[in-house]
Write a structure and sequence with these properties.
single chain; six-stranded antiparallel beta barrel; globular; 29% helix; disordered C terminus; alpha+beta
Length: 724
């Protein structure tokens, strides 16, 4: 304990220390599993960890990687020693997963710093009684005094001890927290919890200490949201664990079987924060907060991150913090409601949110009465606040019930607007947009990842991340984390979100569908992936060679206009074109394919008059390299002629291979599909068949689909090119 602590933080440390120590564990070799030649029966200490939910220990990946650099981390067994009252027990645990997933492919050498977030989740392999910490719900920490705990051996015997310091900032784009040098982080403490003393919640996991002097790094526990997403129709690991976490504390709060202090009890005894504008009636009491979390945990999880964000925005009165990681559970939404704008009480915002959750659409049938119990609690809790809020919540609940009933009728296909949506098409919700631009005349590229809200909110774009000066070879690694974050925001339990790749035609050969972001499976197998022309950009402005080729391509004589600054306009952006008619006609089908850049295997340049005279249900097909003529000019030409659905292909490595199997297979696929609206999902299925070694689908390797959906307009501006 440091001498520089304030009186309030010293009291908070005194209250919280027993709770944190009871949940903190020592991580070592599994009992009886590996040789343990040194001083203790369980072998030397690898590091620390802590229980976050019944049966689940959180630690660092580098801790479970001790003693076996060549051993696969996931599935590895480790030893967990913990205290339950006056009894010390040891149990075997199995590493369920590590973050980031690429640590399974490559990891640093001994004593090197492991990649962020450097987390491991360990499942205990026996039913044991133990304590759990209280995890923060805030997306970012407050820079206040904290305590950190872990296993030390000051007197030759392992024990859990605690020290205090202050948070000094963040690192790694918020994934890590910098710890001050008020005290020393000792070997063996890695993986232990970092506790916010003002609010009594765990905000981080100890990762590393500085080589010289005190201080170090901790990983934000919010990085748990980056756990691998679940398969369609399943509840993800993150949601399962947070549900168990909240129900544990809810049960502890309600239980009267013993008089041991709970986290909720201690939260009520912590010294008040100085200058808190929401003290008193403005915040929920600790008991109310624990109860609310428990009631939310008894509901099925939300269908997607965007559902949570929409309800938070409605309750908060402004768009929530867009920075990652995305909120995945009802609990995460509460974390975005602290300190709302405009002097609105925090308790009022949380009760509005809880009201909306009680009438929300759930991903699976709700336990009978669970949503009604939540609403009853909201109504009872509002009694201690003010009368206008009680009336507002009642009206909000009635509107929500009516809207939920309307949605249920719509899903049954009995809306006033006609039958239910036809099956097999794209999910109607948000999509992930990847934009890549050439960086001037150099062979480096700027990029941006965003979330497109979807047809219901056409044109609404939420940025995720952006970068500059990446090489083509470096794009997959640079985009791995931003794309994963975008998918977390947009994926639902019913479907993986669409990925829209907006690039100049010369980059249509970019193999985004083959990139691996999460789960070890290519993107094009996991989800629909389509190509888009960048809005407002000159498709020819990719490289000097591309500009030269475009100047003599048939596209130069096409009917497409030239916008301000020399940018080529999309025909759908102008009145009086055939683009909208072509889109509507090809969506309904039947489909007719036409080879645009070859005839009987020989390259050709399509004439503008021929393209414009084809039937509206035509799908132009390209089988040659997109960055070479005549295909590059053909891609410009078919766009200028108003075609919104176009097929491209990355040619096979063998330049002498015939394109006939590709055209034959595609013709059969288009005939079987019948209408264009199902093509993105059918192409995903084809990629999955080829990935699963189905010889009948090999012809589809490298196939891309240009998809200019007018209901999903793209942002107009390009990213900045960096400082001059």
């Amino acid at each position: 304990m440091t001498d520089g602590r304030t009186t309030g933080s010293a009291r908070a440390f005194e209250l919280l220390e027993p709770l944190v120590q009871a949940a903190t564990v020592r991580v070592h070799a599994p009992p009886g599993g590996y040789e343990t030649p040194r001083s203790h029966r369980t072998g030397p200490t690898w590091g620390s960890g802590f229980f976050i939910a019944p049966g689940w220990v959180l630690t660092c990946a580098h801790v479970v990687g001790e003693g076996g650099a060549a051993v696969r981390l996931t599935g590895r067994e480790v030893g967990i020693t913990f205290s339950a009252g006056s009894i010390t027990g040891t149990v075997t645990g199995r590493v369920e997963c590590v973050l980031p997933e690429r640590l399974e492919e490559r990891r640093p050498g001994r004593h090197a710093l492991w990649d962020l977030p450097d987390l491991a989740l360990v499942r205990v392999l026996a039913p044991v009684s133990h304590a759990c910490v209280w995890l923060t719900d805030r997306s970012r920490p407050r820079f206040d005094e904290v305590a950190y705990f872990g296993c030390t051996e000051d007197l030759g015997t392992p024990e859990i001890t605690g020290r205090t310091t202050r948070l000094r900032g963040t690192a790694g784009n918020g994934a890590a927290i910098r710890l001050g040098d008020d005290d020393e982080i000792e070997p063996g403490m890695s993986g232990g919890p970092v506790v916010d003393l003002a609010r009594g919640e765990v905000v981080g996991v100890l990762k590393a200490r500085r080589q010289t002097g005190g201080g170090g790094l901790a990983v934000s526990v919010v990085q748990l949201r980056t756990l691998p997403m679940a398969a369609r129709g399943q509840v993800g690991l993150y949601r399962r664990i947070m549900q168990a976490h909240d129900l544990y504390h809810y049960d502890q709060h309600l239980s009267d079987l013993d008089n041991r202090r709970t986290w909720t009890d201690v939260h009520g005894e912590l010294p008040p924060e100085e200058g808190d504008p929401y003290a008193g009636r403005g915040r929920l009491t600790p008991g109310e907060r624990t109860t609310l979390y428990g009631l939310l945990a008894e509901l099925p999880p939300p269908g997607s991150s965007e559902v949570v964000r929409a309800l938070v925005e409605a309750a908060r009165g402004e768009e929530p913090d867009p920075l990652p990681p995305a909120p995945l559970s009802w609990r995460d939404g509460l974390g975005l409601l602290h300190d709302p704008p405009g002097g609105t009480g925090e308790a009022a915002a949380m009760l509005r949110y809880a009201t909306d959750v009680s009438v929300a659409e759930y991903r699976e049938p709700v336990t009978p009465g669970a949503d009604e119990e939540l609403w009853d609690w909201v109504r009872a809790t509002a009694e201690r606040l003010w009368r206008p809020l009680r009336r507002e919540l009642g009206e909000r609940h009635e509107r929500g019930l009516a809207e939920r009933e309307r949605r249920r009728r719509a899903s049954a296909g009995r809306t006033a607007h006609g039958p239910a949506q036809r099956s097999g098409g794209l999910p109607p919700g948000a999509s992930v947009l990847l934009e890549v631009w050439a960086h001037g005349w150099e062979d480096v590229y700027d990029w941006r990842v965003s979330v497109l809200a979807g047809p219901a909110h056409a044109g609404r774009v939420t940025p995720v991340d952006s970068g500059v000066r990446a090489t083509l070879a470096g794009l997959p690694e640079a985009l791995r984390a931003p794309l994963a974050e975008g998918f977390r925001r947009c994926d639902t339990h019913e479907a993986a979100a669409l990925l829209e790749v907006a690039v100049a035609p010369a980059l249509f050969g970019l193999a985004v569908d083959e990139w691996v972001v999460v789960g070890g499976v290519p993107l094009g197998v996991q989800r629909p992936v389509v190509l888009r022309h960048p809005a407002g950009a000159n498709p020819a402005a990719v490289s000097p060679a591309a500009v030269s080729r475009a100047a003599v391509s048939p596209a130069a004589a096409s009917p497409g206009g030239v916008g301000p600054g020399g940018a080529r306009e999309h025909p759908a952006d102008r009145e009086g074109t055939d683009a909208s008619a072509r889109w509507a006609r090809v969506q309904a089908g039947p489909l007719q394919d036409e080879r645009a850049d070859c005839i009987r295997g020989r390259p050709r340049s399509p004439a503008t008059e021929w393209l414009t005279g084809l039937p509206d249900n035509t799908v132009p097909v390209h089988c040659r390299a997109a960055d070479q003529e005549p295909t590059l000019g053909s891609l410009h030409a078919v766009r200028d002629a108003g075609y919104g659905v176009v097929v491209t292909r990355r040619p096979p490595p063998d330049p002498g291979a015939s394109c006939a199997p590709f055209h034959r297979g595609l013709r059969e696929e288009l005939a079987d599909a019948g209408r264009a609206e199902v093509l993105p999902v059918r192409l995903q299925n084809l990629r999955g068949r080829a990935y699963g070694a189905d010889p009948d689908a090999y012809w589809a390797a490298g196939t891309g689909l240009v998809w200019e959906d007018p209901a999903r307009p793209l942002p107009d501006e390009e990213p900045l090119q960096g400082d001059l």
